[in-house]
Amino acid sequence: ADGKRKKKAGKLTGTLRSCLKEVVRTYNEPGKLDKVTAAHEKVDKIKDLMHDNVRKILETHGSLETLQAKSTSMTASADKFLKQSSALKHQLQMRNLRVKAIMALCSGALLTYVLMPLFG
User: Fold this and answer.
1) Mean pLDDT of 24-32
2) Which of 22, 42, 20 is nearest to 31 (CA)?
3) How many whole angstroms separate alpha carbon 75 and alpha carbon 43?
4) 3-state DSSP of the chain
5) Other C-beta atoms lying within 10 Å of the C-beta of residue 64
6) Are 71 and 64 a contacting pair, CB within 8 Å?
7) Rounded to 5 degrees, what are φ and ψ at 81?
8) Of 16-20, 67-71, 93-97, the least confident
9) How confident is the model at residue 63 (pLDDT cuts 50, 70, 90)?
10) Cβ of 38: how many Cβ atoms within 10 Å?
11) Whether residue 48 has pLDDT greater than 70
12) 88-114, pLDDT tens digit by residue?
């Protein structure tokens, strides 16, 4: 009997253990017992949710600013490309006109050279 007492000397008895477990289980969640604590828990959850929402809004705002900057840059690049392509088109049209004029002069000179002996 002494051996059994030594084993149980530092342990709770079955009845006391089950009673203590019930008390711990009951007071483990204070929000269920106290309405003020429950309200504080709800406020904390809502506050965390609002912090997350504000953080997401700030991230989205940063993304929108980046997109706007890229859009502005692309618009400027598109305008520059349009001006350069218009200038190149004009330059090629002038070169084509000069080549046609030179060809017309050469053809006229050649025709004059060939027809001169006949009229001359």
Assistant:
1) 72
2) 42
3) 47
4) CHHHHHHHCCCCCHHHHHHHHHHHHHHCCHHHCCHHHHHHHHHHHHHHHHHHHHHHHHHHHHHHHHHHHHHHHHHHHHHHHHHHHHHHHHHHHHHHHHHHHHHHHHHHHHHHHHHHHHHC
5) 10
6) no
7) -60, -40
8) 16-20
9) confident
10) 14
11) yes
12) 999 999 999 999 999 999 999 999 999
- What's the predicted TM-score (pTM) here? 0.46
Type of residue numbered 33? L
Spatial CB neighbours of 37, under 8 Å, sequence gap ≥ 6 = 30, 31
- Which among 11-15, 26-30, 35-39, 105-109 has the top mean pLDDT? 105-109
Tokens 């079955």 correspond to 14
pLDDT of residue 65 exceeding 80, the answer is yes
CA angle 91, 94, 96 (to 5 degrees): 110
**Residue 16 in tokens:** 């006391």
Amino acid occupying residue 49 = L
